Amino acid sequence: MANQIQIIGTLKCRNTQKVIRYFKDRGLTPHFLDLNQKALSKGELNNITRSIPIEDLIDKDSKEYKKKNLQYMVYDSSELILENPLIIKTPITRFGSKSIQGFDTAKLESIVNELKQ
What we know:
CATH class: Alpha Beta
Shape: globular
Strand content: 5-15%
Mean pLDDT: 93
Number of domains: 1
Number of helices: 6
Order of helices and strands: EHEHHHHEEH
Radius of gyration: 14 Å
Structural class: alpha+beta
Low-confidence stretches: none
CATH architecture: 3-Layer(aba) Sandwich
Helix content: 40-55%
Distance between the termini: 11 Å
């Protein structure tokens, strides 16, 4: 059951660590996708953007965004994310067809409750 939960992020991200700990504290071990090791597939990105607008996925405060001077460029958001996974604002929690961005205890609790049913 717990492997139905996927957390996408990096181990350096504090909020990603908090989401992982949140589920572990409730006896659930989610699958973790480390963006430092593996980028999202186009299908995964499409599933996520059904719940989260693609523009919200881009972390405009990230080092990667600034390093590439993207604030001065016009770009295709999905191509940018697929080519530069570290530009994603993390964490993203996927459960079934739902995706949640960030550390939102109310939304995370709804996943836990759904799993307990």
